[in-house]
């Protein structure tokens, strides 16, 4: 069971959150509640929860300040912040505090359940990684001290425990390397296409890199850590740092080129800081991971620095984009969105990307709510699942397009005369075998008798005849395009439940049976 703490300064809301949801069924237990941030802070320190659910606005200590406390003192816990639509500034600050997600009040049960499920998965992955690290450290402690790779791996993974002891081991066994740099490689596209040959591909990449680094006179120790190829490049004190760094850059560039050519897929790399003490390899490893994440997100080539522009562009979403969406003008809305994406690419600031994207989805959600549309609007945790900016931008682009098209259709429907709307409704629902005059009357809040008179006057026929004509026209189209369908199958697809009756109606309107009509549409040689 995961432990949950709930903090909200509104007693009724707090009680509702604690009692309204089936926490036990979701795999967690509410271990405590608090009515303000200060009480919440004490409760969190005492209970050590896995998840903190907190309101953003509270007296004494705000939800964002509480999230900062959790991040600093309980880094293994996840914080989910609750607030309203009109508090985007708080959402932006929540991003800076690295909260796990930001939910809107009133809290929707399914939305909370979905967010918690993702949170559980995140916590389970973190625990699994922690267990693997502990097991790895235990194995390393039992390995012969001469196992250089094991010592270096421990230095990279854990900079706090026994760093001096490990450094001394290197000296004791005559390992004279004094400085170096960590490079981390990722082959996401290769794994997606060749999951069954992962071990073989790991072996192939390791061999390519060993040969390249040796060619550039770099001592490389390569390990696979958390699915990534991690190379510790080592030098002794006789090699000037400037020359050593130049060798690593050139060798890494050539290694990526050869690996990309071999696997026929892009290989990404992140380079850590060059360090002058091997017990600082952990710093180099962490900065290499950060650099790799940056290169992956922006799909940068290794030759590109990957750094944000020194001349920062102030990125703002023009209100014209939201106006265009609300009007259903997809071309104009997408043009404005593409302009925002272009500015974000110049800055290359990942946190700013999520801040802008969160602003966009919150405004789109507000527009969808106004039009009473049931569209899937992504939340913060779903936005962060995108490893690449291009995929994130594409997902939002499709969302904007779908929203524009749906609103445009709604606007067009609103402007139609009543009878045109009624006929359009029948065109959309003809396949329903139970479609009746009563159903249509209910849909448009009319009496059956009034609707019947409208049909006779404005459509020139009665409801049953018009419905039959629509169904027969659709049946003719199916018989032409899908010649393999039988008359019975065609009847079901256009709303008839009886194949024989369908044939009779078809012959009444077309002067021939469905089979005869289908025969007349094809010429056999």
Provide a compact summary of the structure:
By secondary structure, this protein is α/β, with parallel strands linked by helices. Helix content is 60%, strand content 11%. A 5-stranded parallel sheet has the order 2-1-3-4-5, with helices on both faces. A 4-stranded antiparallel sheet has the order 7-8-6-9, with helices on both faces.
SSE class: alpha/beta
The strand line-up of the biggest sheet is: 2-1-3-4-5
Number of helical segments?
A: 23
- The CATH topology of the largest domain corresponds to Alpha-Beta Plaits
Main beta sheet, described? Answer: 5 strands, parallel
Q: CATH superfamily of the largest domain, please?
A: Reverse transcriptase/Diguanylate cyclase domain
Q: Which second-level CATH architecture of the largest domain applies?
A: 2-Layer Sandwich
Overall structural domain count: 4
Roughly how much helix do the residues carry, as a percent range? 55-70%
Overall pLDDT score: 84
Determine and state the CATH class of the largest domain.
Answer: Alpha Beta
Portion of residues in beta strands equals: 5-15%
- Evaluate the radius of gyration: 32 Å
Please tally the β strands and state the result.
9
User: pLDDT under 50 segments (min length 5)?
Assistant: 140-146, 305-310
Principal-axes geometry comes out as extended
Q: What distance lies between the first and last C-alpha atoms, to the nearest angstrom?
A: 72 Å
Main location: cytoplasm
Protein name: Response regulator
Keywords: Cytoplasm, DNA-binding, Phosphoprotein, Transcription, Transcription regulation, Two-component regulatory system
GO molecular function, one term: DNA-binding transcription factor activity
């Amino acid at each position: 069971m995961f432990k949950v703490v709930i903090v909200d300064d509104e007693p009724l809301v707090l009680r509702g959150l604690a009692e309204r949801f089936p926490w036990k069924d979701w795999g967690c237990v509410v271990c405590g509640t608090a009515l303000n941030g200060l009480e919440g802070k004490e409760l969190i320190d005492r209970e050590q929860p896995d998840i903190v659910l907190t309101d953003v606005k509270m007296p004494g200590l705000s939800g964002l300040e509480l999230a900062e406390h959790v991040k600093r003192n309980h880094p293994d816990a996840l914080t989910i912040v609750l607030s309203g639509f009109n508090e985007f500034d708080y959402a932006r600050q929540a991003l800076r505090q690295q909260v796990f997600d930001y939910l809107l009040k009133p809290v929707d049960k399914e939305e909370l359940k979905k967010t918690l499920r993702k949170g559980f998965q995140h916590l389970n992955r973190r625990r699994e990684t922690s267990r693997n690290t502990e097991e790895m450290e235990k194995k390393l402690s039992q390995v012969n001290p001469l196992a250089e790779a094991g010592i270096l791996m421990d230095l990279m993974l854990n900079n706090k425990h026994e760093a001096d002891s490990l450094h001394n081991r290197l000296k004791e066994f005559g390992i004279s390397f004094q400085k170096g740099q960590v490079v981390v490689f990722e082959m996401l596209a290769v794994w997606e296409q060749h999951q069954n040959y992962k071990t073989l591909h790991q072996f192939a990449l390791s061999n390519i890199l060993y040969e390249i680094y040796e060619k550039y006179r770099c001592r490389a120790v390569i390990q696979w850590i958390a699915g990534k190829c991690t190379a510790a490049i080592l030098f002794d004190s006789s090699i000037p740092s400037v020359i050593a760094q130049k060798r690593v850059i050139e060798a890494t560039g050539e290694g990526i080129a050869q690996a990309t050519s071999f696997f026929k897929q892009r290989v990404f790399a992140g380079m850590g800081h060059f360090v002058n003490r091997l017990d600082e390899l952990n710093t180099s490893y962490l900065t290499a991971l950060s650099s790799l994440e940056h290169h992956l997100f922006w799909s940068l080539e290794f030759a590109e620095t990957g750094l944000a522009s020194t001349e920062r562009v102030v990125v703002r979403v023009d209100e014209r984009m939201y106006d265009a969406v609300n009007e259903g003008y997809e071309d104009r809305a997408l043009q404005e969105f593409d302009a925002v994406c272009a500015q974000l690419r110049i800055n290359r600031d990942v946190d700013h990307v999520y801040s802008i994207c969160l602003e966009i989805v919150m405004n789109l959600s507000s527009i969808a709510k106004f039009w009473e549309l049931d569209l899937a609007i992504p939340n913060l945790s779903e936005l962060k699942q995108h490893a690449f900016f291009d995929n994130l931008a594409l997902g939002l682009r499709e969302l904007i397009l779908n929203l524009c098209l749906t609103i445009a259709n709604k606007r067009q429907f609103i402007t139609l005369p009543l009878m045109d709307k009624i006929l359009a409704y029948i065109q959309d629902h003809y396949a329903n075998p139970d479609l009746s005059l009563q159903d249509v009357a209910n849909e448009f809040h009319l009496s059956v008798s009034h609707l019947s008179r409208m049909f006779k006057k404005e459509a020139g026929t009665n409801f049953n005849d018009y419905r039959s004509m629509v169904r027969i026209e659709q049946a003719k189209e199916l018989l032409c395009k899908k010649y393999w369908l039988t008359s019975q199958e065609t009847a079901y697809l256009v709303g008839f439940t009886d194949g024989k009756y369908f044939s009779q109606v078809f012959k009444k309107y077309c002067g021939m049976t469905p089979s005869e009509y289908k025969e007349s549409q094809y010429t056999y040689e």
